[in-house]
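Final report, Chapter 2: Outcomes

The project's central promise was a pipeline that accepts a single protein chain and returns its three-dimensional structure in a standardized token representation, suitable for archiving and comparison. That pipeline is now operational. To close this chapter, we reproduce one record exactly as it appears in the project archive, with the input sequence first and the structure output second.
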Amino acid sequence: MDIIDKQARSRLMGRIRGKDTKPEIVVRSLAHRLGFRFRLHRRELPGSPDLVFPGSRKVVFVHGCYWHRHPGCRLAYEPKSNVAFWTKKFAANVTRDAKALADLKGQGWDTLVIWECEAKDPQLVASRLSAYLGQSGDQ
């Protein structure tokens, strides 16, 4: 049983953003500070990656742990109400993510997923981006 009414829950859920989230902005800022230049949310690519590095054919997704079901993460907890709906919703998200990654790889793109919980550690994100994109920011 939900602790708030259906209309209030709908308003809250409607405020959740898909783009320009705090973790995404952290990753974008770090990539830019490291000297890497990128494009945002290229809709013509499968999954509309959050950061696209066309010159090196690399993309970065910044996934929310809850919505994209980060395995083993405390932020990917199970909801207590409307369980059947959420189970189906989360399964569809995970399937869609896997398909987007496979499609991108099939088109010759390298992919990296940075999770919301990882974005809380800027040093970790910076090292992952540097290792993934190469040391030089001259892309």
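Archive annotation: The chain has five helices and four strands.
This record, like all others produced under the grant, will remain available to the consortium after the project formally closes.
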